[in-house]
Amino acid sequence: MTTIAAVLAMAAHVDGVNASTLDMTGLAQKGGPVTSHIRFAARDTAIEGPRVPTAALDVLLASDMVVSCGAEALALMNGERTRAFANGTVAPTAEFAIRQTQSIDEAQMVRTLEQAARDLQVRDVAGIAETLFGDTLYSNMMLVGMAFQAGSLPLSLSAIEAAIHLNGVAIDANLKALAAGRILVANPKALLDVLPGRTTVQPMELDERIAFLADELTRYHDAKYAARYRDLVERVREADSARGVGGMRLTRTVVENLYRLMAVKDEYEVARLYSEPEFREKLLATFADPKTLKVMLAPPLLSRTDPATGRPKKRAFGPWIFSAFALLAASRRLRGTVFDPFGYTAERKAERALLARYMDDLALILNQLEEGNYGLLVELARVPDMIRGFGPVKEASMVRAHEKRAQLLGRFNAGGPATNLDDDSDGHFREAAE
Q1: pLDDT number for residue 28
Q2: Ranges 155-169, 291-305, 399-413: which has the least confidence
Q3: Which one, of 320, 348, 323, lies nearest residue 334 by Cα?
Q4: Residues with Cβ < 8 Å from 231, sequence gap 6 or more?
Q5: pLDDT > 70: what percent of the chain?
Q6: Separation CA 232–CA 103 (nearest Å)
Q7: What is the C-alpha to C-alpha distance for residues 69 and 73, in angstroms, rounded to an integer?
Q8: Structural contact between residues 177 and 148, judged by C-beta atoms closer than 8 angstroms
């Protein structure tokens, strides 16, 4: 897709304005960040180099705040002249892909841009673009619309629209994205109030959350499996209510993490999700011919390890795979039985061991609830939250979670033998999950 800088350069040509562009691509990683420089000048004025000089930036279109808050971009900004228009939706970084966590502070990035710029306008541009046009790519053109409406571009509206036509890519959607960006500056409330499906999501009450996750477990496996979850959560809830410190923080932690361990995304669950009628409807609404689709999978019994990555190598499966998904989803009650062909893999065995170990930890937690270690108990109950990803990624996170658990148990064991788990003193938790 043609870059926004190229579209603006084309618009400058239409308006009779000199322009030069330069795309600076991050080469440290494939698909790294791109910083585009564009400079304008009157027709009879030469542009000395395409790169914006240090502290001479007039307009920043910050489609990615992580990149815009980097040293290179900040060096171009000037607190007396730079006007910044930023997308407030922060995309996941490589840190999230590798560690399944995000340490960046969005509020701090906004403050950084505020300090570096003359003025700053931040909107959930990517979220609005996805809602209106089905793709966050249109956020770039929305930022152009914001900058134009604010009087920060030396170009006419007709020239920008003409450049979009000349570019020939998604003309109608880009024109609408340009208009949406203008409205975000001229009358943001008018746009935000009419966006479809953009309502404030309120956190669920505890009863509602338990009911929701139990319903998910019914669809995941069956009603009996969901009842086991409810029973375990209720035991923790009763103890927390009677002996906890208030706030039900322990219960809420167990509600989420027990569900995480009972609803692992295994082969049966992947098949069920692909077989859902809602997914089929989205396919039909998005693609003209779903029969040509291919799904990239790495089936545990069929995939080989990719020597380049050390991870299972994915293969392409044609549309017939959806029939196989439906059959596999219908067989999900085989999960965990002797007839489960996937249950003998190392990953599935490790997941069952994790759940059994969590039952031991819940027994310890309830036994120690009156000993004044409430915060430490909550941290122990939260350990499964460290386990993310699939395959080798999940294996590595399991190791980190095991180390964290060992550290927490070490702090318990310093208090005396009553914290020893080896006797499996509360086996009914383990039985409830089997």
Answers
A1: 40
A2: 291-305
A3: 348
A4: 432
A5: 85
A6: 33
A7: 7
A8: no
CB 246 within 8 A of CB 201: no
Q: Which amino acid is at 234?
A: E
Q: Contact at 8 Å (CB) between 373 and 343?
A: no
**Going edge to edge, which strands form the sheet with 119-123?**
59-62, 83-87, 119-123
38-71 core/surface letters (b: 16 or more CB in 10 A; e: else): bbbeeeeeeeeeeebeeeebbbbbbbbbbbbbee
Burial of residue 316 (CB within 10 Å: 0-12, 13-18, 19+) is exposed
DSSP 8-class letter at 287: -
422's CB contacts (< 8 A; 6+ apart) are: none
| 20 bridge partner residues | 39
Q: State which H helix or E strand residue 159 sits in.
A: helix 157-167
Q: pLDDT tens across 18-54, in order?
A: 999 887 765 444 345 678 899 998 888 888 888 899 9
Q: Which amino acid is at 287?
A: F
User: Using CA atoms, how far apart are residues 201 and 157, in angstroms rounded to an integer?
Assistant: 37
Tell me how crowded residue 132 is: count the other CB atoms within 10 A of its CB: 18
Helical H segments across 368-389, by residue range: 374-381
Q: Cα 89 to chain center, whole Å?
A: 11
CA–CA dist 162, 364 (Å, integer): 69
**Tokens 């790495």, residue located:** 298
Residue whose entry in the numeric block shows the structure tokens 């060992």? 406
Sign of CA dihedral 193, 197, 203, 204: positive
- Please tell me the distance from the alpha carbon of residue 255 to that of residue 257, in angstroms, as a whole number: 6
Q: Distance (Å, rounded) from C-alpha 172 to C-alpha 404?
A: 53
d(CA 48, CA 54): 14
Helix (H, G, I), strand (E, B) or coil at 203: coil
- Here the tokens at position 368 are 């120690």
CA 133, 173, 184, 23 torsion-angle sign: positive
Local structure of 348: helix, strand or coil: helix
Q: Which residues pair with 305 in a beta bridge?
A: 312
Distance (Å) of CA 254 to CA 10, 123, 368, 387, 432? 57, 35, 15, 15, 15
Q: Which of 363, 362, 410 is nearest to 382 (CA)?
A: 362
Q: In the structure encoding, which two tokens stand for residue 266, read together?
A: 């295994």
| Spatial contact of 319 and 303, defined as CB atoms under 8 Å apart | no
What is the Cα–Cα distance from 115 to 107, expressed in whole angstroms? Answer: 12
